[in-house]
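Project outcomes to date are best conveyed with an example. Our students and postdoctoral researchers have been running inverse folding experiments weekly, and each run begins with a structure described purely in tokens. The record below, which covers 321 residues, was selected by the lab manager from last quarter's runs and is presented without edits.
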């Protein structure tokens, strides 16, 4: 389902790295030929069904009022195609957009009863997103807040074929508190989905990997009290690279430093791989608080800018040795 290290994909040539000046940022993992093939298949899907669309900057735009598809991002399905053989791309693309069409139809039926909270609550969920993706939706059309500077937790509808954002006007129609609605969404995800926890060792660093085939694996951070094995005496380092994975390093000793140097390239690679990328950063979790540990990678060098809470932790752990 996902790799602990970034995959090369079927079109790569050993260690060949060529500049791709004509590829958009959202598709930079493709070769020029792969990109043209992918876009051609997407265009063919809609052309064969008589659905007029425009494709602009990684977004498919449909003005078909009957279908109500609106804007459909391409990055997730592109990332998925990059991980499988080109012979399977058409099937993956067809399945992806068929699901969106069915989801749009379901959403239209849902609207007839959506103002009844007792009916709607079964579909509520909470999902973590890259903060940058919220800009494309519009902050006036979402209900949520920031877990860290780059991760947004959003109230969503978890429909059979897709996930949709809940709009603020809907919250008003239900006459329910924000806290109640969010708690309902978190509980639904906890009850409806399975989270698998595995032990791995990267180099000499032991980590816990949480995975699943659904879109809500990062939600494990809302249920840490029921998964104490993910935490150490002093909390944990956490990576939430994409929708199918969460990485944990339970903190016990000052070995947290080599662990951090191991986790950064691991999480960054998984983030770039996707699909459903969330964050390439590492989070320090302590006593219910999530704090991003900023870093930068330049010229093959790693620079970490630790927040005060992490410096204080290191000082304490060093004094214990």
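After processing, the design step wrote out the following sequence:
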């Amino acid at each position: 389902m996902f790799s602990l290290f970034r995959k090369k994909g079927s079109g790569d040539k050993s260690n060949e790295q060529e500049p791709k000046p004509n590829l958009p940022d959202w598709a930079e993992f493709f070769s020029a030929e792969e990109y043209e093939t992918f876009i051609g298949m997407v265009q063919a899907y809609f052309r064969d069904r008589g659905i007029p669309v425009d494709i602009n900057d990684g977004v498919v735009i449909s003005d078909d009022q009957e279908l109500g598809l609106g804007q459909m991002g391409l990055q997730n399905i592109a990332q998925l195609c990059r991980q499988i053989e080109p012979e399977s791309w058409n099937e993956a693309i067809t399945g992806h957009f068929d699901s969106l069409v069915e989801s749009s139809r379901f959403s239209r039926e849902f609207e007839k009863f959506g103002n009844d909270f007792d009916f709607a609550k079964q579909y509520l969920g909470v999902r973590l997103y890259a903060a940058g993706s919220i800009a494309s939706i519009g902050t006036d059309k979402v209900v949520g807040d920031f877990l860290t500077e780059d991760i947004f937790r959003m109230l969503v509808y978890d429909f059979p074929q897709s996930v949709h954002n809940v709009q603020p006007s809907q919250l008003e129609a239900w006459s329910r508190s924000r806290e109640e609605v969010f708690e309902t969404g978190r509980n639904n995800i906890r009850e409806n989905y399975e989270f698998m926890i595995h032990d791995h060792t990267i180099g000499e660093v032991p980590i816990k990997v949480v995975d699943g085939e659904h879109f809500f694996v990062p939600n494990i951070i809302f249920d840490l009290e029921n998964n104490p094995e993910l935490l150490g005496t002093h909390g944990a380092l956490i990576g939430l690279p994409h929708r199918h994975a969460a990485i944990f390093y339970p903190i016990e000793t000052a070995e947290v430093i080599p662990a951090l140097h191991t986790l950064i390239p691991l999480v960054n690679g998984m983030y770039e791989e996707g699909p459903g990328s969330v964050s390439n950063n590492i989070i320090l979790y302590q006593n219910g608080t999530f704090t991003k540990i900023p870093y930068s990678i330049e010229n093959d060098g790693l620079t970490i800018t630790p927040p005060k809470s992490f410096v204080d932790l290191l000082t304490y752990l060093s004094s214990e040795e």
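The longest helix spans residues 89-110. The two ends are 40 Å apart (CA to CA). The training component of this project remains on track.
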